Amino acid sequence: MVGEVKNQGVFNLVESIICLVALIIKMPKRAIGLRGYLGELIFQQWLEKKYPCVEGFEIIKEIIPEGVSKKGGGYLDFGVVKEEKIIRIYEVKTQDYIFGKDSSVNGALEFIWMNKKRVLSFVDNQNHSYITSKNFEAFLILLVSPNEEGIKIIGEENLAHIILFSELEIERFINIHKLKIVLDTDLESELNSIKNPTQGKRIKPEFFKRRDQINKDCI
Length: 219
Fold this sequence. Notes:
44% of the residues lie in helices and 21% in strands. By secondary structure, it is of the alpha/beta class. Helix 1 packs across helix 2 (28-50). The termini are far apart.
């Protein structure tokens, strides 16, 4: 009962942040994206406590089985490495998910579940390769349990690989100060990208020529 109360307190805190931002921007759909973003940050804190670097663990962000397509956001959120071997994979979905027939599971995660014995190595977004440990597992982290339609999408045989946020006791791991630092850093980075959209990229003069020609043709 005490654990349930603590968990509810954490959820209330996260929901309060989300609702405040949603109220300010008046666009509920953005709150869904914010929830996913915050969920990953919070889960990363949980990972760092569960798999501390002082014990030889390394947390990798954005990782995928070698040979699986990276298109369409194919990377999985987190991998846990020890002695250069992948021991755990985690995909985090903290939106109200998975509920409808239009929902889906990350293709790379489905591939692992269907072909676990054939997944021999992973690659991160820096093209560094890691072999898999003998007993590696891949999990999907959800904020809420899937409904019947969602279970069909996930596959009943894969329910053993679903973990809910309420099972993680995340109230023991959340560091609000650290969250704010990451939020401020990411916000500053994105604002700079918006202010300088061509920074680090090439502007092709041909684009302006073609646009000007089209404008002339339309006059």
